[in-house]
Amino acid sequence: MLPPRTKMGAMRMGGQWSTMPSMPSPTRRSPRVQVTLSDEAMVLLERISALTGEGKATLASQLVQAALPAMAAAADALQYVKDSPREAQRMIARYSTEAVQQLSQAQLELDDLISQTPRTKRQKRRRPEGSNGTT
Questions:
Q1: Domain for residue 32, yes or no?
Q2: Is residue 4 situated within a structural domain?
Q3: What does the longest C-alpha to C-alpha distance in the chain come to?
Q4: pTM above 0.85, yes or no
Q5: pLDDT tens profile 79-133
Q6: What is the 3-state secondary structure (H, E, C) of 3-64?
Q7: Is residue 129 in some structural domain?
Q8: Are 45 and 59 within 8 A, CB to CB?
């Protein structure tokens, strides 16, 4: 049987008070953070929690863990913007131009694919209104 404990964690050991911790020191806990979620996010988190049986805090932690690579990239980008704003501005302009070019190329390729797709009988060209097909 364990000796009685007091409020301060001291124990009575054979007539003397000991200030030894009442429990072994806990293992280091992960840092904690409190967040406020939107109603939509909370509904989804509760739904996933109910479906998986995982706690909401566990799920939130797993989501943050999965997002670490994107968060690290964002932090690096923000640091770059803070340290070299002019160079960051030029880099963003360059990347934006490249993105527009890639999007334009993808649109051209899609247009080519659509124009090469054979038409079915139902997709035959309709004749303009008022035309009876005779000349």
A1: no
A2: no
A3: 120
A4: no
A5: 999 999 999 999 999 999 999 999 999 999 999 998 887 776 665 566 666 666 5
A6: CCECCCCCEEECCEEECCCCCCCCCCCCCCCCCCCCHHHHHHHHHHHHHHCCCHHHHHHHHH
A7: no
A8: yes
